[in-house]
């Protein structure tokens, strides 16, 4: 499974990219607002940091507005993906943009029916929001399994990006379900590394190494 960072924080992106663990980036206006930076400036900077796809979302409501935004975004860097909302106008824009060679990511997907339509429209990526479904007591991960079955049944080319990820378990469940991609906020990404037994093991190995060396030192001193 590919891991995207759901972030526009260039420091966090650099860190993940240095470990070879950042296969792409997703952003939305809220994520960019968090960084307090200009949209164009930050996307251009991210594009210089990573090779994978970078999803950028505009605020157009008609297909024409969305296409206009996406054409502009695609000039900001290589591998720009136009994020469009799951609406009739959004899917019209998908068809036009994919024909122009600009990949699309249909966002705010909350049902298998919406995913089926996005796939039929030709979206390169589909983003079901698992966390926001969990928030209203619906099963976000069950949606992923359903969408993957539909895509597989008909050989659709769209890739599923598990979005609105809130915990390491969302990432693990996404991988178990066979999702193509999980887009992960930096705090959840950091948690994926940790296990208390790893920390405990490292501490005890370092302690024993030092004990062994000092014991050898004592033997050497007595000779
Ligand atoms: C990514 O494409 C989505 O915009 C993002 O994962 C939404 O996450 P949220 O529900 O935590 O805002």
How does this structure look, described?
By secondary structure, the protein is an alpha/beta fold. The protein has two domains: 2-192, Aldolase class I (TIM Barrel), CATH 3.20.20.70; 195-223. It has eleven helices and eight strands. It has helices spanning 10-18, 29-35, 39-49, 63-73, 88-99, 112-121, 130-135, 140-154, 168-177, 186-191, 196-222, and strands at 2-6, 24-26, 54-57, 80-85, 104-109, 125-128, 159-162, 181-184. It has an eight-stranded parallel barrel with strand order 1-2-3-4-5-6-7-8, surrounded by six helices. Helix 6 (112-121) packs parallel to helix 8. Bound molecules: erythose-4-phosphate. Erythose-4-phosphate (E4P) is lined by residues 6, 26, 28, 107, 127, 129, 131-132, 163-164, 183.
What order do the helices and strands follow? EHEHHEHEHEHEHHEHEHH
- Taken from the alpha-carbon principal axes, the silhouette is elongated
CATH topology of the largest domain: TIM Barrel
Quickly count the helices: 11
Count up the domains.
2
SSE topology sketch:
Elements lengths: L1 E5 L3 H9 L5 E3 L2 H7 L3 H11 L4 E4 L5 H11 L6 E6 L2 H12 L4 E6 L2 H10 L3 E4 L1 H6 L4 H15 L4 E4 L5 H10 L3 E4 L1 H6 L4 H27 L1
Parallel strand pairs: 1-2, 1-8, 2-3, 3-4, 4-5, 5-6, 6-7, 7-8
Bound molecules: erythose-4-phosphate.
Erythose-4-phosphate (E4P) binds next to α7.
